[in-house]
Amino acid sequence: MKTFSFLRHHKANLLLALVLLMIQAYSELTLPSIMSGIVDTGISRGGIESVVPDEITVDDLSDLELFLTPDEVSQVSSAYGAADGAGVRSFIGSEDDRRALEGFLGQAEMLVFQLDKGVPSDQLLESMGTDAATALGARPLAEGGAPFGLDDPSSGAPGAQAAAGRLPSVMGETIDMEDIRTLVQAGVMSADELVAARGSLMDALGDSGETIVTSQAIEFVKRAYGNAGIDLGAVQTDYLIREGAIMLGYALVAALCAIAAAYNASRTAAKVARDLRHDVYERVLSFSPAEMGAFSEASLITRATNDIQQIQMVLVMCMRMVLFAPCMGVGAVAKVVGFGSTGLQWIIVVGLVVISVVIGLLMSLTMPKFRRMQDLVDRNNLVAREIITGIMPIRAFGRSASEEERYDEANRALTGTYIFTNRAMSFMMPVMMMIMNVISIAIVWFGGHGVDAGTMQVGDLMAYMNYTMQVIMSFMIITMVAVMLPRADIASERVQAVLATTSSVADPASSMTGAQRHMTADGEELPWTGVLSFDDVSFAYPGAEEPTIEHVSFTVRPGQTLGVIGSTGVGKSTLVQLIPRLYDATEGSVTVDGVDVRRMDLKELRSLIGYVPQKGMLFSGDIASNIAYGDPDLPDERIERAARIAQAADFIEEKPEGYESPISQGGTNVSGGQRQRLAIARALAIDPKILVFDDSFSALDYKTDSELRAALAREARGSAVVIVAQRVATIMHADQIIVLDDGRVVGQGTHDELLRTCDAYREIAMSQLSSAELGLDEGEVR
Asked: Where does the record place it (predicted)?
């Protein structure tokens, strides 16, 4: 259900899939019935579908009427039209009339057909039973009397002499239809007595009577068609062509529905995967560093690729097979039940029980493995990513062999899990096939006895076997898909975990409070000037026992520069990350032009800030696209100006392609200093109100560092500048310097003031520069 929940926005496609699959299932379930009809009717019966003939001669119909009641004779007469010149009557009734005639007319046809061939007289009387024989006035033949009361040919019964003249020659041998007609004409036998004989014979046939009646009645119809001048070969051919065309039509409908269902499933699953990738990346881009820390980069990549691919693949199978299998299974069970009491239902029950046991065992073995598999994929990707990105230090320290062993360990764990689950799948298929074959043999064996006993026909047995196999196949399909569902289930949980994670840095434009604008008291919107203030700001990472930043306050105005310095790990980067709201202050406030950044629209806030992180990350493309990353529509003049300020113009213009020179992913085809200068140019290109450099000059030589700071002083006079640095020379000319130690401000002022008043700053400065460079007298050096 976790996987199916991704279809909530595609209900129409899901409904379409269900409709198509139901039509396909209905069409495929109809094929065995048609095949059964072709075998039983088209081949065995010569294409004759009903025991009620379409055309029949007057003589044949008269013979049948001898065994019918007056009401039945009336029904038959009304269903057939007047005789033509050849003495043939055609069926003119409806299909309802035909169904009403089939029962009693078929019984009459069986009797006429048997009597036409001749029936031993003693067998006929015995089959009628004692009551029927008495009704006919017959005496036991052992007493030596003539049958049917014809002791004396001179008796007064009408036709007695004619009857007596014929019967003595056949009594003890056979009685045929001509004998019956003779007895009726002589008045010795009445219609009521023949109808009673018909009823007694049907009672004697018992449960198999309907099958016997139908087969014998069809033979009568064949003979009746021959008497009526109908070509039996043409009847059979017409039936086979008609039923074959219908069967082909159903097969074509099933194929078209299968193609449409597959197309719909693939298209819908692809849309779901596309939307999920979009949603995942959109959510990840909204994450603050706190949320990014909760998911490793390797895990996020795996969730956005492998996990979503698993979901897409399973959704295709679910919309194609998981929905189709129940339609086929339920329909096939209904068809099997529709066969009535065949005595074969227990075979299906036993087969399903065995299959359920096999499925239960396999699922109990494979489920834990599938749940672990995605974690192993994460681990494998993480190790591979670490090795690939850290290839240089690995080679430098000669750790290639140990890293290969570490990757092999992760790879072996994943491979072992794959092998185990695949072996389980390989074991399942032959077991299922063996169960299917055993069921087929059982149906043929026990069904064959039913055919021999006359309780089943060959076509019905074939159809029954087909429906049984479809029930088993439905379970097999669900089983095969069910093995994949645990992986999809885990993948769904992992993707939903990303989508359910909200950023701790919320955009107020989407909240109840809304974003706060820079407005006058009269409600007029003011332009942003870029006055940055920290008011007693403290910050602690989620779950941390101690705050990283404590009670920091300062203000930087446009045209001013603030330097932040301190030893490694004191919170300098954390401090400047509060400005563009990569994190939110836990106490105090960070404001721009007096507006709390937590009340500003994120997009608008970050458009005011040019932020250069410690690691100068570049993107694949060219130099111009990387500099114009903040605004792709920047004119070339702005791009070139930013490059000049960042001291990047010289090395760019030395390249053959200039600003169109390609940049590989991560900027690996340029040096560290060049990468850092391009990152600085990218921040300058958008002409921000606030410039934040997070130790962004560390890869620059002193000459380039000095030239860049001088260019900033000239070209960025309208911006408030915040520089985090490790080198004193980078910030010594700043208007204000903050010295951090363990997250606290231990010194704040100009370079000269801090040299005299802050021991921590003096120690850092004297460790990097000489007394002369610092402007200190010998007496001030301690």
From this structure: Cell inner membrane
